[in-house]
Structure formats: C-alpha cells, structure tokens
C-alpha cells in the first residue's frame, strides 16, 4: 500500500501454527514504522486471547532489547531491517507509557467503550451499564416474572399458550413452567433480536419461500385407516408382538393432532414410508420395517397410499412445530417489550445490545424491535480519525452483526489511498466454535472476496500459516481428511513435531 509497504491481509492460521506470534509480529512492525500505538486496534474474542497477544508483544520486545541476535531475528520476521535492540527497548518504553491508551482487547469490550464514550451520539441518555452474565440472568428472571403477572391478569388464551410451552419442554428435566420459560428465554432472546421483524418464527413462507411440499394434503386418519386395513389383510398371520406394535403405531396416528408431538417411532416410520425401499427378493413390491427390523412386504399398488400416510405424519409434526414456534416467538416478543422498558431504558445493556445498536445505525436490519436507531456519521468520523490500523483475531467466529458494527470503519481504511492505513485479519474456518452465538465463518472469505471483486487485490490472501507446532501427523491427517471438501480458507495443516529421542520432522502437505 503506497511507499510504506503495508498491505491489507487475510491470513489462514491453522491450529498450533503460531497465530499469536504472527499477530505480535504485525503489531511490532507497525510500531517500528512509527505508528503511534494508540492508533492501532487489535481485537480478539476472549480476554485470555487478548492477554496472550499482549504478553507475546512484550515478551518479544524484551528478548530483542536484550539480545542482538533476537533483535536480528525479529527484524527479519517484521521485514524491518533497521530494527535494533535499542529500538526495541524504545518501543517497549512507549508501550508501557501508553498502556492505558492501547486498544487491545475483545470485540465486546471495544463496542462497550464506544457506547460509554458516545452515549448521546448513540441515542442514549444518562449513564450506561454493561450487564455481565450473572446480572443478565437476574434481570431476565425479574422481567419474566413481570410478564407472568401482566399476562395472567386478563388474557384467557395465556393458559393455552403455557400449555404449548410445556409441550416444547416435554423432554427436558423438570416440569416447572417458570424454569422452562426462563431457559427458553435465555436460549432464544438473542435469536429473537437477530430475527428480522418481517420473518417471525413459525411462518411457513419465511421457511419455504416457494411452498413446502409436505404441508397441505389429505386427512391423516383416513390414510392411517386404509393402510391399517391393507396391512392386516396382507399379513394376517403376523406374530402377536408385531401386531401389538403396529396397533400401537395406529393408535398414535389417530391421536396425532396439530400441536402434539409424534413419537420417535412414528417419525422413523414416516420417513421410510415417504420413500419406501424396493423389496430385495420380491419383484413389484416394496418393504417397510416393523418391530426390531422385521420386514413387511407390500405390492407397488399400495405405494402411493403409504407415501401419502408418511407425508401426513410429517405434516402433523411440522404443523405442531410451527405452532410451538409461533407461540415461542409471541412469548419472547412480550418479554422483549417488558425488557426494553425495565432494562434498556434504565441504561442497562448487554454486549449484544451494543453491537446491534451500532449495526442498526449502519443501515443493517436489526431485530431488536425497540432499540432506537441513530446516525453513525458523526461517531464514525471521530472513531475513524482515531484509528489507522486494524488487527482482528479469530475472524472465523465474527458474527454478521459484529461485522456490520465494524464495517464502515474498516471500509474507510481499505478504501484509503494514503498507504498509511491497514486492515489485517487472521483465522481458520476449521476452528469456528461460536456459531451458537451468531459467529459466521463464511465472512472469512466473503470480506476478502468483496474487496477484491473489482479485480484489484486490495486484500492479500496469499499467506497461510499451515505448519503446526502442536500436533503429530496422525492428528493432522485426520483433520485434513475431514475438512478436505471445505472452502480454500479451511486450508490443510502441516506438522512439525519432535518425539522424545527423535529429530524434528516436518511434513509438507498440499493445501486443499
């Protein structure tokens, strides 16, 4: 980028390949280029990882400041030939002096700093508090209790609604309604906030943009009655244990109603009925399995009716799940109304609220129905003037909401032609572990593809850390076999290891 030699980079960093070491190298390179440390943003996902990153920077500067050989090695790694022990000592002093000014931490803490620094620009009034996990649980239960009290006063349909929640929790330990609802809210509130308001849960058109092939059709009871007649006529001499098993299945079919749940046995039967396999030894027949894998044969003339029966069972199960999904959505929506009034309006926010607020201000669809949008233009101008270099760790775990909260700031850096700004991110899609909280590993490739789409390689994607210093070849062979069909960013890992009494060995494997 310009005369500075800096370039925007995306680096694939396999497990045990020295990712923290590479990030520290980049940071020290920037400092050696006389970038003020307070103008560098280095973010990762956990406090532990942030601490390890800071430790790696200080440790390498300490070593290089006290050893000419270590200084030469660091100079070679950073590509800064003028780096010396004296220079490393000066950098070490600068970082110690500016330690309170460094922006080196977690994404959540960075978003929290923005909110605390610009509460009025974010459309908030008064002091802002970020709730930790314990306090989130406390306020959630308080709000839920208020929802119970409010809904229990005058809504006749609330009893039916609670019955659906009990069914939703039918296989969980415990039968207390409040405990089950608290667990549902804890699991689903964030998902509710991330759901576009025009796509509520349980809406078939949102799930199947065309038309679900299973929904709609004939009556389950009539299909079941016809199949029962055919079964017992064709297999009149079946053993009593098999007859009792089939009779039990038919009772379940007749009892299945919208909102109720099909048993695992019934679902298993429905799945094989939808696509009944051909008989192995009897032409123009198909087979279905009964108790303990017992095979029952049927003429192909019955196939259409059996398929219709299987579809009807799946339809009843899907309709029940849609009803429960709509009920849960309505419950969380009512909870959210109370939560906004009692918690957010009182200045208490979660990290998700903060990221959602910043993302919504950037024009992103944000499902928190009552968060107040604001313009980020003034805020972004002030932040953009404060930071020139971005280092993002574990990028495969970044959620789309978090990326949208950062996107405008990163975009300014990448579009700059000054050559004095940079964007650097590291990750490995094989190590994505935060999908449960919105992490989207597809972003790892999508961001680079977006900025390189014009044909100009704004983000360099050529570097990969694919030599593992942690695992033996057997482990990496298994990993490579599993992820062989993954995107290029999954990469293939190589191994460099040493067993007791053996010379270090390096395996060179081609990337996928």
Keywords for this entry:
alpha/beta, single chain, Rossmann fold, 3-stranded mixed sheet, 7-stranded parallel sheet, 512 residues, 18 helices, 10% strand, disordered C terminus, 3 domains
Helices and strands in order, then pairings?
Elements: E1 8-13, H1 19-32, E2 40-44, H2 47-66, H3 68-78, H4 85-97, E3 103-106, H5 107-117, E4 129-130, H6 133-154, H7 158-168, H8 177-193, H9 204-207, H10 220-234, H11 240-255, H12 264-274, E5 285-289, E6 295-299, H13 303-342, E7 348-349, H14 351-361, H15 377-384, E8 389-392, H16 400-415, E9 422-427, H17 443-452, E10 459-460, E11 464-465, E12 467-468, H18 473-482, E13 494-497, E14 505-507
Parallel strand pairs: 1-9, 1-10, 1-11, 2-3, 2-8, 4-7, 8-9, 12-13
Antiparallel strand pairs: 5-6, 13-14
Q: What does this molecule look like?
A:
This protein has helices spanning 19-32, 47-66, 68-78, 85-97, 107-117, 133-154, 158-168, 177-193, 204-207, 220-234, 240-255, 264-274, 303-342, 351-361, 377-384, 400-415, 443-452, 473-482; strands at residues 8-13, 40-44, 103-106, 129-130, 285-289, 295-299, 348-349, 389-392, 422-427, 459-460, 464-465, 467-468, 494-497, 505-507. With 512 residues, it is of the alpha/beta class. The chain has 3 domains: 2-122 and 349-465, 3-Layer(aba) Sandwich (Rossmann fold), CATH 3.40.50; 132-342, no CATH class; 466-512, no CATH class. Strands 1, 2, 3, 8, 9, 10 and 11 form a 7-stranded parallel β-sheet that branches. A 3-stranded mixed β-sheet has the order 12-13-14, with no helix packed on it. Strand 13 (494-497) and strand 14 (505-507) form a beta hairpin. Helix 10 (220-234) runs antiparallel to helix 13 (303-342). Residues 367-371 and 497-512 have low confidence and may be disordered.
């Amino acid at each position: 980028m310009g005369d500075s030699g800096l370039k925007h980079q995306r680096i694939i960093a396999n497990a045990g390949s020295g990712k923290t070491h590479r990030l520290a190298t980049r940071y020290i390179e920037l400092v050696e280029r006389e970038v003020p440390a307070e103008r560098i943003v280095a973010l990762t996902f956990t406090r532990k990882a942030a601490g390890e990153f800071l430790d790696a920077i200080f440790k390498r500067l300490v070593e290089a400041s006290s050893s000419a050989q270590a200084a030469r090695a660091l100079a070679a790694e950073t590509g800064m030939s003028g780096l010396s022990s004296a220079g490393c000592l000066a950098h070490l002093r600068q970082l110690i002096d500016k330690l309170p000014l460094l922006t080196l931490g977690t994404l959540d803490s960075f978003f929290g700093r923005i909110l605390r620094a610009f509460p009025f620009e974010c459309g908030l009034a008064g002091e802002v508090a970020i709730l930790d996990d314990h306090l989130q649980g406390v306020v959630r239960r308080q709000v839920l209790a208020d929802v119970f009290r409010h809904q229990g006063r005058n809504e006749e349909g609330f009893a039916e609604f609670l019955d659906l929640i009990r069914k939703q929790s039918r296989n969980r330990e415990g039968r207390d309604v409040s405990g089950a609802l608290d667990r549902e809210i804890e699991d689903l509130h964030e998902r509710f906030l991330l759901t576009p308001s025009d796509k509520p849960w349980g809406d078939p058109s949102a799930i199947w943009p065309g038309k679900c092939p299973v929904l709609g059709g004939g009556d389950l009871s009539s299909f079941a009655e016809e199949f029962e007649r055919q079964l017992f006529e064709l297999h009149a001499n079946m053993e009593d244990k098999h007859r009792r098993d089939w009779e039990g299945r038919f009772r379940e079919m007749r009892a299945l109603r919208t909102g109720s749940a099909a048993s695992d046995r019934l679902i298993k039967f429905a799945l094989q009925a939808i696509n009944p396999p051909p008989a192995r030894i009897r032409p123009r027949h198909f087979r279905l399995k009964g108790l303990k894998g017992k095979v029952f044969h049927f003429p192909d003339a019955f196939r259409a009716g059996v398929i219709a029966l299987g579809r009807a069972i799946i339809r009843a199960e899907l309709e029940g799940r849609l009803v429960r999904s709509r009920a849960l959505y309505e419950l969380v929506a009512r909870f959210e109304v109370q939560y906004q009034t009692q918690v957010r309006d009182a200045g208490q926010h979660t990290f998700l609220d903060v990221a959602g607020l910043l993302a919504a201000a950037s024009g992103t669809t944000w499902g928190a129905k009552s968060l107040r949008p604001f313009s980020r233009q003034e805020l972004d101008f002030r932040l953009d003037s404060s930071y020139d270099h971005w280092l993002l760790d574990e990028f495969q775990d970044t959620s789309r909401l978090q990326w949208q909260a950062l996107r405008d700031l990163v975009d300014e850096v990448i579009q700059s032609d000054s050559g004095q700004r940079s964007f650097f991110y590291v990750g490995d899609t094989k190590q994505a572990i935060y999908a449960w909280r919105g992490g989207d590993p597809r972003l790892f490739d999508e961001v680079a593809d977006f900025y390189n789409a014009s044909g100009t390689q704004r983000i360099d994607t050529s570097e990969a850390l694919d030599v593992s210093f942690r695992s033996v070849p057997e482990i990496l062979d298994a990993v490579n076999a599993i992820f062989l069909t993954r995107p290029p960013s999954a990469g293939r890992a190589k191994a460099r290891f040493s067993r007791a009494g053996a010379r270090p060995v390096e395996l060179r494997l081609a990337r996928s």
